[in-house]
Amino acid sequence: MNKSAPGWLGHWQPGTWLKLAAVVALATIALKTLAWWVSDSVGLLSDALESFVNLASALFGLAMVTLAKRPADDSHPYGHHKAEYFSSGFEGALIMCAAAAIIWFAVQRLLAPQPLQAMGLGLVLSCISSALNGVLGWAMLQAARQHRSIALEADARHLFTDVWTSVGVVAGLLLATLTGWLWLDAAVAIGVALNILREGTHLLRRSWQGLMDEAVEPEAQAQIQQVLASFEHHTIRFDHVVTRQAGQRRFVDLHMHMPAGWTLGRAAAVRTSVEQALMSAVPGLRASIQLLPSDVEAHFDDPKDLI
Question: pTM for this one?
Fold first, then answer.
């Protein structure tokens, strides 16, 4: 949990934030489309196209967050937590499609420059929409850290990308207005496309890593090792510690070795204490501990296990 974030940010669940993101996306679409309509700027058109991506991403993210909250069932015994990674991947793919569309429009304008109109009103509308996205993006990013929601984080980071996109568009159009270099409008649009293409690639990579059962973050690994060290004794040791994460859920599997002479009840009581300590130290963690006698080792590298 992010201790520096205001506590009220954690009161809203990810689904509520994504509903708000969809409403704000509709507002920014209206503002940016109007800005493009009055100015005929391809740079502002590129900014408006990205807002459509914001809307689609928020709606798809809401669907995936709702799915991720479903309890485990016979077909999905580990739950549905990985559904959030599909939201991140979908948003990354949409961003890349938007970047391709922006580049296509920009190249057409670069080949046939057009005069800009009513730039003052267009830039004011763009600035208002950027302020909305900036405030919402900041709040959503703090909430994403508290809830450990990759869908919420992906949408928040995209909103920040949208803000920087708008800043670049406004700066480029001001320069084009002052210098009379109409080609700057198209150049700014291409720069916008390359920037959001980078963000789309990052989101796709993050989604891929999650679906491939990436280990938990180093901070959580350090907390796990600290808890295990507190239980280690000349009669107790741990090995084969393996972690993975799926959306908001984290998992750790390990072996706990103890004297063969202990009763099953005593061994189970110690294991329960270790599991509870691990889950208290690391939010969202589920621990699975296999009990083994001190003189027994489990081997996972046997060629027969790879068949």
Answer: 0.58
